[in-house]
Amino acid sequence: MTxxxxxxxxxxxxxxxxIKFIMDPKEVISGGDAYALKILEESRNxxxxxxxxxxxxxVERLMDLIDAESKLPDFD
Length: 76
Hints:
Elements: H1 9-12, H2 15-23, H3 25-30, H4 34-42, H5 56-70
Helix pairs in contact: 2-5
């Protein structure tokens, strides 16, 4: 698997940071953000791509979905 587990991600970083990272991960990484660099290292140095067509509204709706799904029970 490449990339972090998103379950409970809003408990690890604040929403504004997450929105900025999702919209432009390379900018956050190149800015030297310690958490972004940790994610990059844990992802075998494969950066999350900047996705075309994302705007703030879409990212906020995506965050709403991730938050809602994070509240669901785990199925192992």
